[in-house]
Amino acid sequence: MNTRSIYFRLILWYSGLVIAVSLAFGAYTYQGVRSRLYGEMEQTFTRRAHQIADNILVHVHEKSPEEIASQIRSVYSPSANNRLIRILKSDRSVFYVSTAPKEGRFDPLKIPLPQTLEAAHRVETLSDSASMLIVDVPVTATGEPFLIEMGAPTDEINTALGGLVITLLFGLPIVILIVSAGGYVLVRRSLKPVEDIRATAEKITFGNLSNRLPVAKTGDALENLSTTLNQMLARLDNAYQQLSRFSADASHELRTPLTIMRGELESIAQRESGLSDHLRERIGSVLEEAERLSRITENLFAISRLDAGEARIEPITFYLVDLVKTTTDQMLLLAEEKDIEITVNALHPVKVRGDAARLKQVVVNLLDNAIKYTSNGGNIIITTSIVDHKAILTIADTGIGIPAEALPHIFERFYRADKVRSREQGGAGLGLSIVRAICQAHGGTVEIESTENKGTTCRVILPLANGEA
Ligand code: ADP
Fold first, then answer.
1. Domain spanning 6-159, CATH architecture
2. Is the CB of 448 under 6 A from ligand 1?
3. Does the domain formed by 221-308 have CATH 3.40.50.620?
4. Is the distance from the beta carbon of residue 400 to the nearest atom of ligand 1 less than 6 Å?
5. How far does residue 431's CA lie from ligand 1's centre (Å)?
6. pLDDT digits (tens, 9 = 90+) for 146-199
7. CATH class held by domain 316-467
């Protein structure tokens, strides 16, 4: 579990808060119910005491104490109801006391007398586990003051409170669980826009810089974040467009003077008589470099236009293996010079839709590399297949391979893993950049796996032509 995650911390805080609030609520409910139960008992006792005074004690001078006692017994049956009724005269002498209850839960004669004859309520301890609530009510009957004491064991209230505690103990964890689960869902839902922004941002590359992140219409920091990130993307897009246009313009501007230079040099070398062999050789070498420069300029121009999305793609639908076979046939001489065997395997009939000339360039560049970087007598296997509804072209060689530290840079412009060898072979480090730009312009990708001294496998992944699977 990731304890640093915002999900975890939010849910932890939220659950902590819910637990604290639930416990406070439980304590408040317990206290509220308790004081209400005691309050009601006190009110009932006070009412009864006044009833005794008004209905029975008023006859204190007309009736004997036994008659009064028997009337109280017959109306309130204290012993049957587990109640204490005790009436004190003004000198604190006991005028009447109820008999012990049938259940024998307390002995009325052992309950201590009150200190004063004032209104009060108190809890007397009966034993370790039992206590009694006693309410003292001062009354006057026929002008004479009395104190009527009404009491009952508190275990009925305690049983009710115990029931409440059990309900709370079982109920609160369930409530906490439900509320925490709800909180989890809520946190996930509220952070979903962030996840959406992340997922979209992950897919944005230089190939689709014009895409924008979803803007969560929340009117708060989240909306500001997505808007600000989109503004940043717009600035990046703009800068990238300018850069690509600059490269395209620069290489375009270089093409004409280079073509003129090459033409002039060729014409000097061919037409001028009287040139010494040495001079002719030097002109030939300058011409070679001019041609090399032209190739680099052309390649740079192509990449820049593809990157800027300005290159015109003229799509046609064709079988990939046909393109591979014609290209291989045209390059067979190069392979034969090095005694390299090329095998073409068409595992599936793969139809793609794209610019045939540009896709041919992909095969030429990859096959050219495979031949260049494979020693005499090696093998190259070209395969066309369909995997996961995609057209796959692999070119695997048994060549020198690419060092692991060079692999991440292999698609960068002008990057060459083995500078000396690559330059000797006439490479400028632009071949794979072109391959990638063309693949991306066709909605595809290119991957390279390589082990030094064992060989390299290039995998071009393209969308299948519509309707093909
Ligand atoms: P270059 O024109 O120099 O070949 P690329 O962009 O085509 O440029 O390739 C970049 C570098 O990747 C090359 O300089 C070479 O070091 C390495 N490379 C490309 N393909 C292969 C391969 N099949 N085997 C070994 N190395 C390769």
1. 2-Layer Sandwich (3.30)
2. no
3. no
4. yes
5. 7
6. 999 999 999 888 899 999 999 999 988 898 889 888 888 988 888 888 888 999
7. alpha beta
